[in-house]
Amino acid sequence: MQEDSYSTTLCQLENEELENTAMSAENYQQMLAIYLYLNNLANAKMLWMRIPDNLKDQNKELDQINLLNIALQHSNYSDFFKHMKYEWSEHNKAIINDLLVSKREELFNLTASAYVSIYEQNLIEMAQMTPEELKSACFDWTREQDGDKYILIPKIRESAPRVASDDQLLKLTEFVSFLEN
Amino acid sequence: MGSALENYVNQVRTLSAAGSYRELADELPESLSLLVRNWSILDNVLETLDMQQHTLGVLYVLLGKLHSVASSNPEPTQIIQLMRDFVQRSNAEQLRFAVCPFYETCHLFTDFLVQKNLSILGIKVLSRAIEQIRQLDTQLTPIHADLCQLSLKAKHFNVVLPFLDTDITDISTVAAECKNQQQQQPQHTLDANNDAKYFLLYYYYGGMIYTAVKNYERALYFFEVCITTPAMAMSHIMLEAYKKFLMVSLIVEGKIAYIPKNAQVIGRFMKPLANHYHDLVNVYDNSSSEELRILILKYSEAFTRDNNMGLAKQVATSLYKRNIQRLTKTFLTLSLSDVASRVQLPSAAEAERYILNMIKSGEIFASINQKDGMVLFKDDPEQYNLPDMFLNVQTNITQVLDLVKQINKMEEEIILNPMYVKKALGSQDDDLASQHPKTYSGDPTD
């Protein structure tokens, strides 16, 4: 599992931070990015507050990740995707990419559940995609013309029903047998 | 090495070898001033002692070192490394004979780190120290407050949160520990006076940590414990906790959360000293975001001085959200610009942003229609028929059952306590003597 491997890395980095005053900027970048990916915004905020000032000033990439952090703190998708467009260095590329994918998915799921209709231009603005990219991302949504603008009517993607696990079934059986007696 | 220190080492070695830890623990406090005086050669003493075998001796050397940091000005990393080794390798059994000095060592260590701005390096040390000294997983020790302080200073909460999440059932205090060991050394009386301080600090800091990670319900509980601690006089820790309590209860409940009646200190001492905060509560009650904004601006100096400005801003945001939530109860559909004007947001776009965020976090159920600029408020779609909900209910039931078990256990302990029985019977005698018509069953809940 990708998520697990990030959690393990995070655990290592956290331990290192507790034993060692001088962590490298790369380590901080990685930690911050993983917090964002795991949607642990409170920790991301705290981490930024405890990163030494000299690293913040010198390291452009760290600053860039923090811009993502700030955008997410304010739930500002348009800023978030804007700041995503950056030449990420090799060791951060993977995690940033995963972050991008997961946030895109989150945005489309949210739009589908929160909007009856949304102007195409607004969604493009929020997701910072080209019209073509957007079209392929939400190909099954209905697209209507409204004056000179296009409006999208999202289609809610049915989430696969969760199957009850054996453990839960066991508890249910217990409960039923308790009621019978 | 001075001969007095040689004596110290010999005493530690002989008594430790003989296993007379009790005797050693009783005699060592007298050597503390000697150790502090000879701070410059304490490293030599340490070399002759083994942390595992001579835990008590090493503990007092550490204490002496920490007492003399002002004059010796040691390298911080050296002290940290020493403490780290000590909590890793010391013998817990021996440590039990010197609980109070151990607490004191941890307090001094905390002060030292805070002063040197190296708080983050002490978090692991203290968490290990707590694990070593506490007798139960649910026991509160004075070190907990230190750990919270370091975590707040370092802004690092991953280690401390599991400690805070545990519900406390037992408290280890210096007074109680001294009584257990029948030690009446005068230097511990000062510490015993601090028991209340560390207890209050734990709940105050704990509340602040939960506020920082936005677990407001739990933060409210921590502040509540802090302000409702039975007291005759008010502590400033309680006052600060009360201020934060008011703000957090606005965020959680929109009004002042219920405070148990027994806390008279609040009405008498705290209310008059927290005027600004009561004004805030009153204005919040009017549901006018504009008025609230003006009030926060007016009192911004006081809030900033109390370090509560961030919290005040959270209160302001929560009022917008609460007002939007209120709209969902009255209207089925509403235009975005109407929402904006009703909750006093500057524009329809801003209102849309708030609503979108609230939908995302599950605070309201609604859908936005951009075509005609309307919001459609919906009911909670939860049907209570999914496995997730079942799991949720199941865990809650288990929690409640565990709690009931715990309460029963504690009640049983009290009923079987000779002191309690004596008192209960005593009052029965009084009742009989005064010809009280009611028969006393001995159950305090009657």
TrEMBL record, chain A:
Q: Where in the cell is it found?
A: Cytoplasm; Nucleus
InterPro entries given in the database record: COP9_CSN8 (IPR033205), CSN8_PSD8_EIF3K (IPR033464)
Q: Which UniProt keywords apply?
A: Cytoplasm, Nucleus, Signalosome
Per the record's keyword annotation, is Kinase included, yes or no?
no
> Which cellular component terms (GO) are annotated to the entry?
COP9 signalosome; cytoplasm
Q: What is its main location?
A: cytoplasm
Q: Domain CSN8/PSMD8/EIF3K spans what residues?
A: 25-155
The question of whether Cytoplasm is a record keyword is answered with yes
| Protein's GO biological process | COP9 signalosome assembly; protein deneddylation
In Swiss-Prot or TrEMBL terms, this protein is called COP9 signalosome complex subunit 8
From TrEMBL, chain B:
- Domain of life (superkingdom): Eukaryota
The UniProt entry, under Gene3D superfamilies, shows: 1.25.40.570
The answer to whether the entry has keyword Cytoplasm is yes
| Keywords from the named record | Cytoplasm, Nucleus, Signalosome
Q: Which SMART domains match?
A: PINT (SM00088)
Q: Where is the composition biased (Polar residues)?
A: 436-446
Which stretches of sequence are listed as region Disordered?
A: 427-446
Under the heading PROSITE patterns, the entry gives: PCI (PS50250)
- Gene Ontology BP annotations: ubiquitin-dependent protein catabolic process
Q: Which residues cross the membrane?
A: none
| A GO cellular component annotation in the UniProt record | cytoplasm
The PCI domain sits at 218-382
Where does this one sit in the cell? Cytoplasm; Nucleus
Q: Which family does it belong to?
A: Belongs to the CSN3 family.
- The identity of this protein, by name, is COP9 signalosome complex subunit 3
Gene that this sequence comes from: LOC117569700
